[in-house]
Amino acid sequence: MTQSALNHDTFVVIPLYNEATVIAEVIRELKQHFKHVICVDDGSTDASATLAKQAGAFVINHPINLGQGAALQTGFEFALQQNADYVITFDADGQHRVEDALRMLERARCENLAIVVGSRFLDTRTQPGALKKLVLKTAAFVTNLATSMKLTDAHNGLRLIRRDALKKIDLKQDRMAHGTEIIIQLGKCDLPWAEEPVEVLYTSYSKAKGQSLLNSVNILIDLVVR
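User: That's the sequence. What structure does it adopt?
Assistant: Structure tokens below.
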């Protein structure tokens, strides 16, 4: 893809914490299609920030670890300052596919959507396992109680957010509870949205990096009911 064909109006925001093993490859794939790839390095203690820069990302540094929600908020604020029309949130651990992000962007443009949320449950490509599926479905149910967006997969990190919706996001939950908080805030925007089928790649590396799903659900329930 030529430089002129890159999606100049779209910023990919990646919360980054100790992903030196995979982050360079994640960025190289994204940079083939997106001019602006922003990594918010959240106090990494390995070479993640250096490798991200070398791969072509613009890196914003948190001097200490503040959590994924805080990293996303920093990235959102930077993208707005840079006049981004769209932001795509993308995980640093290699679970997301660039092809899915591109399809979400194309759909947003074609259908005038302000929000496109990835879902691993709208087709059969992703096989999360019975326990993980149960926990993720529970997370979606709890989140749906607090928002007009009735999602099949409310805790998917692959999302597209248009500028008008992005302006309404102000994340206060700095750690995993931000996954519910962001959907609640987007639901209050009253802007057109859709879910898009995406594949989540469960590698041995990404599984090892993941937090306890049961713990994540406890955080989500605490956020909604209090």
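The beta strands are 10-16, 36-42, 58-62, 86-89, 115-119, 159-162, 193-197.
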